[in-house]
Amino acid sequence: MASLDRLIKEVCEANRALPAHGLVTLTWGNVSGCDRSEGLVVIKASGVAYEEMTAADIVIVDLEGNVVNGGGRPSTDTPTHLALYRAFEDIGGIVHTHSAWATAWAQAEREIPLLGTTHADLSAHPIPVSRPLEPEEVDEDYEGATGAALIEALAGRHPLEVPCALARGHGPFCWALTPTAAVEAAITLEEVARLALLTSLLDSQVAPLAAAVRDKHFMRKHGPGAYYGQP
Amino acid sequence: MASLDRLIKEVCEANRALPAHGLVTLTWGNVSGCDRSEGLVVIKASGVAYEEMTAADIVIVDLEGNVVNGGGRPSTDTPTHLALYRAFEDIGGIVHTHSAWATAWAQAEREIPLLGTTHADLSAHPIPVSRPLEPEEVDEDYEGATGAALIEALAGRHPLEVPCALARGHGPFCWALTPTAAVEAAITLEEVARLALLTSLLDSQVAPLAAAVRDKHFMRKHGPGAYYGQP
Amino acid sequence: MASLDRLIKEVCEANRALPAHGLVTLTWGNVSGCDRSEGLVVIKASGVAYEEMTAADIVIVDLEGNVVNGGGRPSTDTPTHLALYRAFEDIGGIVHTHSAWATAWAQAEREIPLLGTTHADLSAHPIPVSRPLEPEEVDEDYEGATGAALIEALAGRHPLEVPCALARGHGPFCWALTPTAAVEAAITLEEVARLALLTSLLDSQVAPLAAAVRDKHFMRKHGPGAYYGQP
Amino acid sequence: MASLDRLIKEVCEANRALPAHGLVTLTWGNVSGCDRSEGLVVIKASGVAYEEMTAADIVIVDLEGNVVNGGGRPSTDTPTHLALYRAFEDIGGIVHTHSAWATAWAQAEREIPLLGTTHADLSAHPIPVSRPLEPEEVDEDYEGATGAALIEALAGRHPLEVPCALARGHGPFCWALTPTAAVEAAITLEEVARLALLTSLLDSQVAPLAAAVRDKHFMRKHGPGAYYGQP
Q1: Is residue D19 part of a domain?
Q2: What pTM does this model have?
Q3: Do the chains contact at D98 and A188, CB–CB below 8 Å?
Q4: Is A227 inside a domain boundary?
Q5: Among B41, B40, B39, B75, residue whose Cα is nearest residue B57
């Protein structure tokens, strides 16, 4: 279980990074991590303050949501995280926040258009917004349905090509290979959302970034011949 | 009087929390608490700086506004606080600020529409704005009339269902069971106001949050079967 | 000269307060003070960083701008300060910044409308913007002409009733009885400018604050029967 | 090589200044310096965090991009820096960031209009935006073509008269005599971009700053008879 212990520590630090990067107010956000070899997910307990958080505030659940150990109740958003982990087998970390600029797009019920290279460094696609939920979906399994609608929003694209989506009227979810990388995606998304909103104030009809530049930026960072960062 | 001493300490800390959360500039804000068993209200003295504030800068008044002890003049907004405490018997703390995003809605003389789940986590209703005061009301008892107009703005709803209202042209008032919880409501309101304004920049005609999602969020946090936070 | 020494110290601290309150970027701002008994003005040296500033970076000039002592060249805006001190005999401190929200109004060449009680706590009038300068005025004595245009912008009102004005296309100037109070006016103006701009995003045609509320707020803070703050 | 050692130290400190001034998120920005006597350019390694950066994370290249020493891969934007150094023989430092307000103008594909004296203190011209790149330019030498388009955007003006330009859809590049001065230009540009965007929210058709005031400000700071700062 050494890998699980490392994951708990990483999730704990990733949760504490959320307020440090200005992504959360009060307790509105959570990071989880998935240990694929154990089939377990570790996630922040519900309503716990980040500064005071220790490994004891991390709850361990299996991929069906059964609490395996941990002293508290897991985040209310846990079924959303689990739906994403079950659907996206390559991801190992998820972040959910109500970060302001991304949430503004979610509340406006609009995808974030791809307007610049900062966005293309994250994804070569707009950041999608999930469809409205039916009242029955909300009644029966709200958090699970939220996850299902986020998965639908990717329209079959690989989750590492579209590493974020907006839950309509709610806020962003981001995912990556690890919890630490998911926090980096959440930081990036928030800045991308801010840039797109400021841009739209200057020109509400601005054209998307040219396709050649878009693909160049995504590929130089994420493609097979990537040359951003150190080898 | 041990409970009153505890309340003084809590009100003192709650006032100091206002600048720490970016809710106030200079001395523009105040927190009060009500000890229902004693029938007394403790409130920040007028014009005192938060950082230097000690229990000696807290003024104690009865529910009619008579100063019981305390070295200073109470906040000029005291009659507004007292009107709210007399009308809303279940509340024990009130916060008033000129926090920027909420004040922008107050100055625009518009209620804050319910556009997302962050708002629904606070209230299942728009945040109302008080009616204009008549010139005679301003002349005779401005601060008391401000309180009366805030109470009217709730239109008979329970104050814990609508824990905030905007004084028209002025700024927000928030209330809760305790002064600490009222500060949390003020932090939440400011973020809700910011999200709503940013959303309106993307779509000035955006529809309110779907009713099913709105009620789900309010009830999972505040309803009889609430499952947010730790039991 | 004890009063002059005290003034130098106050001006030094007031200059250092500008970055602490987010009012300046790099070295774009200055505070001066006037010792009326000596007929001398003390002001920040030009281009000096605030953090490193000591009394040695304060320059002393007479009301005509002759340098009396001090090792450096006074702020380039000194002739503007002097014009204001000569015209407004009751003031003892002036602050000039390029603070972002107030400067946006100056660049838009619009007065700041009186939209809320935060503004009325500062002044019962809109914050005026100065008229365009003629090219000859710019050529002959730009900084002096800037001061003259600010004085004109008050349209004969007392400078303590309109404690700020915007130099068109440039930025705000604020004044008060003391340098410390002028910094407080500059902090207040910046927040008032921000609130007014955010309000205008929600409603670009919003009506000014009701006159009765406006006068009530100004008078309860600055009138003969003022009851804000401690007696 | 003492001058090269000093330059490495200066570039290292200039890179660390970027997050301190709020100009970068994560690792999205870089500062370089050029030692003209050696014909060498020192630049940040790609993808390195600013806080951890030491001289060991600085890469040295010649003006054709051959790595001379340094343990890492240089910033992916290095060919853009080199194109600028080859074309602008008087400059000794370059900064590239994705700072939010300047990047919003780049994404809106608009030059930053000259709306106030803060801008005129930096340049007497609008801040230009580069033309769209052809797909073949992107394929063949994207970063070099970005530099060529920035140079074209100056339309023959001297680079110290127009010390910044926006790479279309990407973000700002700024240059100056030294890396330290280039960081100061980047700080100024970001504030100028913010002021211009806020101004455009108040009046999207506002006229540029009067020519006489514009030239006065640029010349009093940068002209032959400059009188801003200390002699």
Answers
A1: yes
A2: 0.97
A3: no
A4: no
A5: B75
